[in-house]
Specification:
With 433 residues, the chain is an alpha+beta fold. The chain folds into two domains: 204 residues, Metalloenzyme, LuxS/M16 peptidase-like (Cytochrome Bc1 Complex, Chain A, domain 1, 2-Layer Sandwich), CATH 3.30.830; 201 residues, Metalloenzyme, LuxS/M16 peptidase-like (Cytochrome Bc1 Complex, Chain A, domain 1, 2-Layer Sandwich). The chain is 45% helix and 19% strand. It contains 16 helices and eleven strands. A hairpin with a 4-residue loop joins strand 9 and strand 10. Helix 9 crosses helix 12 and helix 10 runs antiparallel to helix 11.
């Protein structure tokens, strides 16, 4: 799979990924800003602004007009806010691509940010915050990152708080948009049944007038860890199930050993034959859902295992999860060649399946263009995975699975975290091999 990159005169980068056999296309506009670029007063504004872009523009004054135009071409529109970027996309038939360009440019450049719509949307977002709070399978991730990145903007919730959302004014949105929604801080990705020439013509037609204002850089963006001992955070909530993430601080998106780390996570909990799934679910029946993954930002990340646990046996389950990290470092249960091979094929297979969809292809290239030193094709990523050696995986395991990188977040009906702390203390000697 190949791609082409061009830069418009105003600095906007355009990434085209032709997929000639497809009749569909995904057009995405990305802004390199998210909750990491916020502060304690405007926390949640990136996500709130994402909502407002669908509420009316100078050319399409109402949300209904925007929605009707998407529906009239049988398209799908959506958006998402992360801690480091915000993305808006439209997926449609390839012969309707100009409508997608027209809508996305109108939304990002001409949003009305109407005062009445802002006040109305506050209620919607507050209910969204409450919904996530009542969905521990989702909110455990924010609880964990508030622990790991405590004191940094990476530790703030993407949606903000009820207080910060309630206090936002129209001027806050205008300033934020002017600061971060500028051509040099944004990219376009187009994946599907298109060609580079027509994409560039449409990009020039609809995005060349985007003003190139000076980007306001937020303070305290660089992350530097000060963790020197294990940390634990309990979010007391009456639920029938306990939700945990047990994780170790790792590295950012451009770390040279990221592929060995990702393979390590797949060996631990990347599938139904992984160590975590086998030991925690199959052999002991301690969980239904359990998985390990790598979560990365520009300059920091972590390898974490999520599990939904029987509350009465949650402490036992956390002990087993910690033991699995120790087992990888134990010469008697070290990683097998067969496990390494399986993990490589697991990662390559899942990536290949994901890239059958134009929206996933757009995200694959867009994320790299925003944050990576070099954009790799899927074929180049496969080669990187294949080249990983057993020594590299073992090196990362020994480097990461140490007490000063260990973190545990819990959502469950507990008055205190003493039993979990005792398990972490008793297992530290094993983990530090």
């Amino acid at each position: 799979m190949q791609y082409a990159k061009s830069v418009l005169p105003n600095g906007l980068r355009v990434i085209t990924i032709p997929m000639p056999s497809l009749e569909s296309v995904t057009v995405s506009i990305w802004a390199k800003t998210g909750s990491r670029n916020e502060n304690s007063k405007n926390n949640g504004i990136s996500h709130f602004l994402e909502h407002m872009f669908f509420k009316g523009t100078t050319n399409r004054p109402t949300a209904k007009q925007i929605a009707e135009e998407i529906d009239s071409i049988g398209g799908i529109q959506n958006a998402g806010t992360s801690k480091e970027y915000t993305q808006y996309y439209i997926k449609c038939r390839a012969d309707k691509i100009e409508t997608a360009f027209d809508l996305l440019s109108d939304m990002t450049m001409n949003s009305l940010l109407d005062h009445k719509e802002i006040e109305r949307e506050k209620g919607t977002i507050i209910e969204e915050i409450r919904m996530y709070e009542d969905t521990p399978m989702i909110s455990i991730g924010e609880v964990f990152e508030s622990l790991v990145y405590s004191g940094h903007t990476l530790g703030m919730d993407i949606a903000g708080t009820e207080k910060t959302v309630s206090e936002m004014k129209r001027g806050d949105f205008v300033d934020y948009r002017n600061n971060f929604y500028t051509p040099e801080n944004m990219i376009l990705t187009i994946a599907g049944g298109v060609d580079e020439k027509s994409v560039l013509a449409l990009s020039q037609k609809y995005f060349s007038k985007m003003p190139n204002l000076q980007i306001c850089k937020s303070a305290n963006l660089h992350y530097k860890t000060t963790q020197d001992k294990p940390k634990i955070k309990l979010h007391n909530k009456k639920k029938e199930q306990t939700h945990v993430i047990l994780g170790f601080l790792a590295d950012g998106k451009n770390y040279k050993g990221k592929y060995p780390q990702t393979i390590l996570s797949a060996i631990l909990g990347g599938g139904m034959s992984s160590r975590m799934f086998t030991e925690v679910r199959e052999r002991r029946g301690l969980a239904y859902a359990i998985r390990t993954s790598m979560d990365r930002y520009t300059d920091i990340g972590y390898i974490g295992t999520y599990a939904g646990l029987d509350t009465k046996r949650a402490v036992e389950a956390v002990k087993v999860m910690l033991d699995q990290h120790h087992q990888i470092l134990n010469s008697k249960s070290q990683i097998l060649i067969s496990e390494l091979t399986k993990a490589k094929e697991f990662l390559k297979g899942h990536l290949a399946l994901a890239l059958e969809d134009t929206s996933d292809v757009s995200s694959f290239f867009g994320d790299q263009e925003l944050f990576s030193k070099k954009v790799l094709t899927p074929e180049e990523v496969f080669k990187k995975i294949d080249k990983v050696t057993m020594d590299e995986v073992n090196f990362e395991a020994k480097r990461l699975f140490v007490p000063e990188r260990l973190n545990l977040a819990i959502i469950g009906p507990y008055k205190d975290d003493s039993k979990f702390k005792n398990i972490m203390r008793s297992n530290l000697g094993k983990v530090i091999k």
